[in-house]
């Protein structure tokens, strides 16, 4: 590997502020903030959404439309695309 061209890969603490959860993940993100966790100092980044708080991953996803986009399309435009010439 060539020296001095690769980003600094290290363990970073990500804090999901909406779920108040901390994740230690390897990353190359640049940050000046640090956090002491488990007796060690890590680079620190806050995020608003993660797998702990996103509705898709938590199962709390709202279903806005019950019939689906295909049925809604056919209801609005089906008469234009039907094979019946009437």
UniProtKB/TrEMBL annotation:
UniProt entry tagged with the keyword Ribosomal protein: yes
Record keyword Signal present: no
UniProt-recorded Gene Ontology molecular function terms: structural constituent of ribosome
GO cellular component terms given for this protein: ribonucleoprotein complex; ribosome
Gene Ontology biological-process annotations: translation
Keywords: Ribonucleoprotein, Ribosomal protein
InterPro entries: Ribosomal_bL28/bL31-like_sf (IPR034704), Ribosomal_bL31 (IPR002150), Ribosomal_bL31_B (IPR027493), Ribosomal_bL31_sf (IPR042105)
Protein family (similarity comment): Belongs to the bacterial ribosomal protein bL31 family. Type B subfamily.
Subunit structure: Part of the 50S ribosomal subunit.
Protein name: Large ribosomal subunit protein bL31B
Species annotation: Sodalis ligni
């Amino acid at each position: 590997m060539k020296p001095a061209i690769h980003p600094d890969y290290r363990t970073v603490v990500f804090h999901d502020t909406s779920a108040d959860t901390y994740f230690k993940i390897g990353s190359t993100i640049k940050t000046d903030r640090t956090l002491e966790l488990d007796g060690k100092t890590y680079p620190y980044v806050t995020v608003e959404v993660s797998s702990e708080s996103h509705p898709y991953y938590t199962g709390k996803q709202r279903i806005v439309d019950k019939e689906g986009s295909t049925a809604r399309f056919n209801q609005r435009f089906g008469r234009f695309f039907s094979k019946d010439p009437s």
